[in-house]
Task: structure prediction
Amino acid sequence: MDEPSNKLIGRHSYCTQDVVNLLLVGKAVSNTHNGVITLGAGSDSTQLKGLHYQSEIGFLSLFEHYKSCTVGSYYKQPKYPVWVVCSESHFSVLFTTSEDFFVRNPARFDLIYFNGLGDQDEEIRLTIDTSHKTQGTSKDDDLISPLDLCIRTCWDGASIDWNGSDPLL
Result:
């Protein structure tokens, strides 16, 4: 943790990023960027601690879309194609069943989405196309699924097809 006084449970009984990182990478660091970022110089400097190695499971956050944090490549490119998604005050999961996902590095691929709070009865399969870029503006964010915004923090400008499922707004 960045500060010894940091807690694992924050305001409103929400888990902090420290506990999320503890669960995903085994270390309670306070941030999602790669390495250590030093702010200031000398005795007045502050170190912001992030990840020091590639995670086995990834992490994406809506906070990155809103420029509140930076999620580094150690989370965006995990060892296994599974991502925990922090969006709208809870967590969900994106994953692919493709065993060679990172070997092939496809421009078009499917991700399965699971939201335990979404009363989800059927599989939601999203097709991500990085070769067909979309151009959105911040004023359009109200009409775009927060999940799409999270996905685009990893695959910039990708088009996202919900394949007949209603986008979750």
